[in-house]
Amino acid sequence: VNGLCRFLKMDYTQTDFENGAFTKVVGIESICYAATKGDFIREAYRLLIPKGRLVVIDGFMRRPPSNKDEARLLARWLTGWGVPSLSTVEDFRASLGQQRFVRISYTDFHRNVVPSSLHYHAVSKQIHPFVSLLRRGGLVSDRLLKHYESAIIQKPLFCSEDPIITYGMFVADKP
Predict the structure, then answer these.
(1) What pTM was estimated for this model as a whole?
(2) Which of 114, 118, 130, 150 is a good FRET partner for 158, with 20 to 30 A between their CA atoms?
């Protein structure tokens, strides 16, 4: 791909690009890492040409934790993945509307990704003891260990009958 593309490193909530630099802005499993999701939405709006399109595929909160145990589990999961917070589907939709995006749609893919989530949970549960030993020996980072722990504890957050976390896609257009 040499000569066909270039990679730039910058904060996606405050880029150096000119207004209206893009016809489309796409965020796939990355917008959850924005400290303030509204900052990303504002920047995406600025970067899009009129009639440009924003697509965000990511994890979202389906509902808030209903008790302290769920809240603690969610906090551990977020920490393990290095995610500051998840926006609720409703809050993300409202932020898009506040920024004047139109034709906002949301498609929930939760049931489509549950099988993969369960598989990842099972594999991580098997690997976790080995990674714990490697961590005690100083051979892997604490961050990697927390990553595996998050994969294990995602099951009750994501795969229960009343999950806290969902996975979906927003599409919105700049007028």
Answers:
(1) 0.91
(2) 130
